[in-house]
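Dear H.,

Thanks for agreeing to be a second pair of eyes. The structure we're designing against is below in token form, covering all 271 positions.
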């Protein structure tokens, strides 16, 4: 079930490593992209990503996500760019301590989620989170998976986990309230690597331990966006299924790894 739209895409976190792989894939599909970056020195690098004779238009917007405090701030950017779809690839990356992590990974993310969900023109929102962004054990996880997730979330990623899970849950709540005309996708990769793309993945409900290349994450993301029947949480690890088949399966079987979370509490986040 392929999307037939020719969207204008707002790509937040345009200079991130996944975004650098994803941008040419979006443009190659004749989709137009506004890449949001913080550092103007990166603009030339972003513009060089556009394939020759690409039908998709590439624009660059220099904006600091740390200045986005509420949905109204995000809404101004949505209006400026006339975005139809929003992709969240931004993150503090552990730089700047807890304050910056919460400012970007929680507050700005939540602002863009809320603004996008309440803008009728915006019909798709894809967020890249991480595989262990959960409060409770996934029903399909082994004891070792749960122990590994807790070790990460209560240790080195404690602040990141707190920030990401707030944003992830708000995305679920807004998707539930807005309904079927808003396609909310939460792609949740394992440990990221810079190895070359393999084209072979595990997608849907996976364990919590494992790796995935950033290039494969970008490929899966664009495949999910191509369809109109993909929504919900998708865990992602390196595997042995080709990307197209993996995406087709989770869409047709309506797999959603949100399963096991406290739905009633989360839906109530957006009355």
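And this is the sequence the design step returned. I haven't edited it by hand at all.
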């Amino acid at each position: 079930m392929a999307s037939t739209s020719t969207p204008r895409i707002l790509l937040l976190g345009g200079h991130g490593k996944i975004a650098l792989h994803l941008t040419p894939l979006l443009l190659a599909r004749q989709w137009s992209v506004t890449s949001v970056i913080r550092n103007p020195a990166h603009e030339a690098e972003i513009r060089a990503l556009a394939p020759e004779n690409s039908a998709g238009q590439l624009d660059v917007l220099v904006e600091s996500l740390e200045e986005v405090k509420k949905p109204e701030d995000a809404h101004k950017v949505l209006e400026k760019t006339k975005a139809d779809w929003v992709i969240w690839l931004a993150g503090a990356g552990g730089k700047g301590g807890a304050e910056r992590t919460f400012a970007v990974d929680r507050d700005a993310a939540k602002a863009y989620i809320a603004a996008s969900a309440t803008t009728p023109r915006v019909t798709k929102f894809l967020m890249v989170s991480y595989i262990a962004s959960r409060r409770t054990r996934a029903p399909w996880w082994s004891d070792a998976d749960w122990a590994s997730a807790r070790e990460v979330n209560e240790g080195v990623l404690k602040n990141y986990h707190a920030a990401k899970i707030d944003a992830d849950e708000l995305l679920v709540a807004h998707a539930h309230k807005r309904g079927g005309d808003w396609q909310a996708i939460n792609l949740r990769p394992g440990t990221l690597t810079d190895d070359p793309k393999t084209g072979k993945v595990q997608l849907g409900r996976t364990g919590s331990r494992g790796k995935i290349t950033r290039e494969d994450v970008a490929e899966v993301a664009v495949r999910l966006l191509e369809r109109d029947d993909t929504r919900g949480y998708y865990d992602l690890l390196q595997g042995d299924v080709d990307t197209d088949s993996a995406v087709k399966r989770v869409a047709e079987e309506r797999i959603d790894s949100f399963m096991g979370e406290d739905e009633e509490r989360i839906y109530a986040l957006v009355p």
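Two observations from my side: The longest helix spans residues 97-117. The two ends are 31 Å apart (CA to CA).

Warmly,
E.
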